[in-house]
Request: fold
Amino acid sequence: MSTQQVYINSTSAYFPNNPVSNDEMEEYLGYIDGRPSKSKKIVLRNNGIVNRYYALDKNGKSTHTNAQMTALAVKELFKNSPEKLKEIELLSCGTSSPDQVMPSHGVMAHGWLPEAEAIEVVSPSGVCCAGMHAIKYAYLAIKAGEVKLAVATGSERFSGLLVSNVFEEEAQKLKEMEENPFIAFQKDFLRWMLSDGASAFLMSNKPNENGLSLRLDWIEGVSYANEMETCMYMGGEKQEDGTLKGFMDYTPGEIMNKSIFSIKQDITLLSDNIVGLGGKKIKEIFDRRELTNTDIDYFLPHISSDFFKSKIYDLVEVYGGGIPYEKWFINLYTVGNVGAASVFLMINELFNSGRLKKGEKILLLVPESARFSYMYAMLTVC
Reply:
């Protein structure tokens, strides 16, 4: 059976409200126990982020749901021909911050798209790799000839999990116990990195007749959960033996007192493993596909912090022959870490920059610290 080529024909992005500067962050997120964060300046100095977006007003009230932002990004794809929204056959939506546990994020986004038809919808979950999984599902469906036109999305609405009232019960409990009411660094750390937004790709089995397209040559991933314990988590608490105790095994009171639904990260486990494990697969892919650094014109690594930039550079130098910084394209600093949407947002910005030329190759790298998963892909400008 012959397989189809797969192309990204257009891209879009949706950011809620105006960009939020470093100085304004606690005006939106609030102060835990009424005090400025001790870790904020340290984290911001390391991550290099100067702007991010929140689906919040300054009273901490939500202005958009994740599903709404996703639907707005999809509509942006069809802003010049809204009637063509009826032609899509598949909607594949990746996120790590759905608005609810059930129904799935994808069907909720579909619910905000009454202009679309009754179509197949899928919702890959996870963390940063969820967006790449959404792309891969659409890629495989088109490649197999199951559909001709699909939309893949990546989106996040982290801000609702970062506001101070999520942590206030825990802070008050610590105060009652005459302990330091500052929240543990593993919880506070992520408040100064994460951002909201959505991005969408229109994908098909044909390149654009006019203008550039991006051919998706291959996309693959790997998980090291078989050998690594949990690093980043939400809706659970890590135990002393490294296992994760999920929210269903806590009482409602414990869920509040321990801020179980905050996002947490084991910083030591992250810094010791995230870069090195990602390099193992890069080497295997480069060897198997007979790739060298000279084959790559643009390198788009999703990084959560500027802290990791030089470490990834060193890793690629060891495993892939080195990719000079002039080939890198990163927008972390201006949009923040938007999790599953980050790789979409980098591609969207580059695709619409006017810099690309036919024949150029774009390498994607998306690490996910949750339990150490990685996704890689190659695009060709055509």
In short: Residues 7-214 form a domain with the Peroxisomal Thiolase; Chain A, domain 1 fold (CATH 3.40.47.10).
